[in-house]
TrEMBL record:
This is Thioredoxin-like fold. InterPro entries: Glutathione-S-Trfase_C_sf (IPR036282), Glutathione_S-Trfase (IPR040079), Glutathione_S-Trfase_N (IPR004045), GST_Omega/HSP26 (IPR050983), Thioredoxin-like_sf (IPR036249). Pfam families: GST_C_2 (PF13410), GST_N_2 (PF13409). One of its GO terms (cellular component) is cytoplasm. SUPFAM superfamilies: GST C-terminal domain-like (SSF47616), Thioredoxin-like (SSF52833). Residues 62-145 form the GST N-terminal domain.
């Protein structure tokens, strides 16, 4: 069954229905209404930037070219990305697909036959393996802040090395548990005991970071994996690690401190993206049955979490948010992301009523060769304009307000719904926008989907 057929079946049959709305504002009007309403802090990392000059004089060519994965899924790329940003080492960027969601250009595989990411070119020299790259960056850019400022053989250096080994031990316990349902209880207790050790080390060092008050490469080594563990263990095993509030208090202090770092704010993913990007990379993740409630909340299929009105984001949210919750700003971020790229976003969404691509790729949410349903693009465009308009004027979504759409002859409902669902399920954090913005856009898309289904 194709995407439209699936949508019909789920929605109880929308094939024959058509919708109309004559007053969806034009993109130019939406642009004017939101210009300057969201300005990203330049000190925050920007997943969409192709070059970072930092404090370099204009016209200077960065010594480093970073190759990282296009969807911001790869944890090893995330480490190098964070390191360069934290040190403010200028770099240019080339995005390369991971095999599970696309092909790699010959220009890359001819330099790196294994195809593995991350890679840097330093003054034209190709360097692979994230741990080697991290060491090279530290030793080559000594005029920048050191992220491992300890003398070889010192007690601090030995502690840093011990903590790095503990990270690998935690990683392998996570892999054992998350990729298998075999012996779930014992895999859980082995994982949790290792996390106890991590929490104790954070406490012993005085926190909030692994080496105490100072943020170091040790934190960078842990970050992508603690982030992915928090998402995946809740989603597949039903256990809350971040914001647990009890068993791992020092870990919560670490998550809170990390969230204050501007670099990490622009690099952090969300639970939904991580829960769905891991299986294609790992060959599958195993649910244990205790996860159903959390899984449905993260996927936004429980009728609450991706629905208006959205609840507040805070430290005890299902997905903890350790910073300020500013829904109006989050809506503006989401609106600007759609407005600035509306032609591509509309065509992308319309793949939901188009044809699947060939060749396909193993990541279920990725289909780079899919073709949009061309004849439905005007409908998808109009629906997206209504979604953005509602994010600008949220009172439109109040229960007492007039319906967003009416029955009419203009557009078929089913393909529009399939397209909005397609887009909703593929908003990637941080690739497309921040988590608070993605959360708003997902909920406003659902508001529109419900309105379409109800005509
Ligand atoms: N040991 C390597 C591991 C790198 C790695 O596993 N990279 C994965 C992505 S997370 C990769 O490039 N896989 C090939 C692909 O999926 O295209 C490192 O630390 O750099």
């Amino acid at each position: 069954m194709d995407a439209v057929g699936m949508a019909n079946r789920r929605r109880g049959g929308t094939t024959a229905k058509t919708w109309a709305r004559v007053d969806a504002p034009a993109w130019t009007a939406l642009d004017e209404a939101t210009r300057g309403a969201f300005v990203k802090d330049p000190e925050e990392s920007d997943a969409r930037a192709n070059e970072r000059a930092f404090d370099a004089s204009p016209g200077t060519t960065p010594r480093i070219k970073l190759y990282r994965d296009a969807a911001s899924w790869c944890p090893y790329s995330q480490k190098i990305w964070m390191q360069l940003e934290e040190k403010r080492v200028p770099y240019t960027l080339e995005r390369i697909n991971m095999r599970c969601y696309g092909s790699k250009p010959k220009s890359f595989t001819s330099k790196v036959p294994s195809g593995a990411l991350p890679v840097i070119e330093l003054d034209g020299r190709v360097i692979t393996e994230s741990s080697v790259i991290a060491d090279v960056i530290e030793s080559e850019f000594t005029e920048h802040k050191s992220l491992l400022p300890y003398a070889p053989g010192s007690a601090e250096m030995r502690r840093a090395q011990t903590l790095m080994r503990l990270e690998r031990a935690l990683f392998s316990r996570w892999m054992q548990w998350i990729t298998s349902s075999w012996s779930d209880a014992s895999a859980q207790s082995m994982y949790c005991e290792t996390l106890d050790a991590v929490d104790a080390e954070l406490g012993a060092g005085g926190g909030p970071y692994f080496m105490g008050a100072e943020f170091t490469l040790v934190d960078i080594a842990y970050t992508p994996f603690l982030e992915r563990m928090a998402a995946s263990i809740l989603y597949y095993k039903g256990l809350k690690i971040e914001g647990n509030g009890g068993r791992w208090p020092n870990l919560d202090k670490w998550f809170a401190a990390m969230a204050q770092r501007k670099v990490y704010r622009g690099i952090k993913s969300d639970y939904y993206t991580n829960a769905h990007d891991l299986p294609p990379q790992l060959g599958g993740c195993a649910e244990n049955g205790d996860n159903v409630q959390a899984r449905d909340a993260i996927d936004g299929v429980n009728g609450v979490d991706w629905r208006l009105p959205l609840g507040p984001l805070n430290e005890s949210s299902m997905e903890p948010w350790w910073g300020v919750d500013d829904p109006a700003l989050a809506r503006m971020e989401a609106a600007r992301r759609v407005i600035e790229n509306h032609v591509n976003v509309t065509r992308f969404a319309a793949r939901g009523c188009g044809t699947p691509g060939s060749p396909g790729y193993s990541a279920p949410l990725s289909d780079p060769n899919a073709k949009p349903g061309e004849e439905h693009i005007p409908a998808v465009d109009a629906a997206l304009r209504l979604v953005v308009h509602a994010m600008i004027k949220p009172e439109i979504t109040d229960a007492a307000a007039a319906p967003a759409v009416s029955r009419g002859e203009s557009h078929a409902v089913a393909p529009t719904v399939a397209s909005l669902e397609y887009l909703r399920d593929r908003i990637g954090v941080p690739r497309d926008m921040s988590y608070p913005a993605a959360r708003q856009l997902r909920a406003y898309l659902n508001w529109m989907i419900d309105a379409l289904v109800a005509v």
